[in-house]
Please model this.
Amino acid sequence: MKINSVFLTFPIFETKLKITSQYEKFVKSRKLNQFELHSNNYEKENEELTLKTEYLLNDFLIAVCKQLNFNKYKFKTTWIQKYKELEFHDCHVHNPKAFSIILYVDCTKDSAETMFYNPGYPYFDIFRHKISPEKGKVVVFHGGLPHAALPNKDKKRIVVSGNIDFFNEKA
Model:
């Protein structure tokens, strides 16, 4: 009997980098719009943020490229999110044809964790993966992976988020 099987996986890559004081000051100086659940600058043009973030993350993103069997990456968008006490970001997905990043720029031990859920959540719930924030921690994940920022317990949680395409460029 011949059996074909396919196991679909959605990798989550993470590392911890040193955030320069210049980068942190730059991120904290950006004007954000206050919304009901958190502040962000998602709707704004963030070319300078993208360039500074790419410079900081380049070596890590090249390593992720290799893990995924690609040789090139390109940022599509970047934005900043800040969470006050009890603010959160409900379960959502990004572009399912891209990957996404979270870079924890400022946080404490009381900052909200990021919860990842299996594809298909909430219709079926078979696994969850919680990531605790640490200043300088970077997470790269498939954009279609449901995730949420849980309710925040401090006033310091600031992240830079973004969407990235990984691809092969012919030489």
